[in-house]
Amino acid sequence: MKAIKQQGFTLIELVIVIIILGILAVTAAPKFLNLQTDARVSTLSGLEAALKGGANLVYSKSAIAGVERQADSSVSDAGNTIDTVYGYPKASSDYLLWVDANTNDWNADQDTDGEITFRPSSVASDANCTVVYTEATDANTPAKAEVDLTDGC
């Protein structure tokens, strides 16, 4: 009797390959499913950089005008007036306009004086996925913008 050469996969080999692919998919899926969070984090980091850069530009403009040590002042540029506190922008919802952020993409909440919280419109209001801008408290303490990325982003 002549031996028959096997061609193709046996059923057992096919099942083993499917099991291995399933294990790989289960271990790799969480990494790929987390892309939405990564996109939000990148967006928040971008707004943080825009807030910091904008604050530094306004401070430079205030220094040129000689009002960087005043607790309450304003500077003008291209017809826009920006209220300042010690040379840095005052925390207000107008802040979004001069950093050129789309107001449809962001919600701005001013819970306390001197602080404003920006949250992407696509995120629930109770999620800790925000950028917090704090205006300068005195002539020696600059304004700051910080990303809050605790659970929920």
From TrEMBL:
SUPFAM superfamilies named among the record's database cross-references: Pili subunits
NCBIfam families in UniProt: IV_pilin_GFxxxE
Membrane spanning residue stretches: 12-33
Keyword annotations: Membrane, Transmembrane, Transmembrane helix
Source lineage: Bacteria, Pseudomonadati, Pseudomonadota, Gammaproteobacteria, Alteromonadales
Keyword Translocase in annotation: no
Gene3D superfamilies given in the database record: Glycoprotein, Type 4 Pilin (3.30.700.10)
Species, as recorded: Agarivorans albus MKT 106
Keyword Signal found: no
Protein's recorded name: MSHA pilin protein MshA
Entries under InterPro entries matching the protein: N_methyl_site (IPR012902), Pilin-like (IPR045584)
Name of one Pfam family that matches: N_methyl
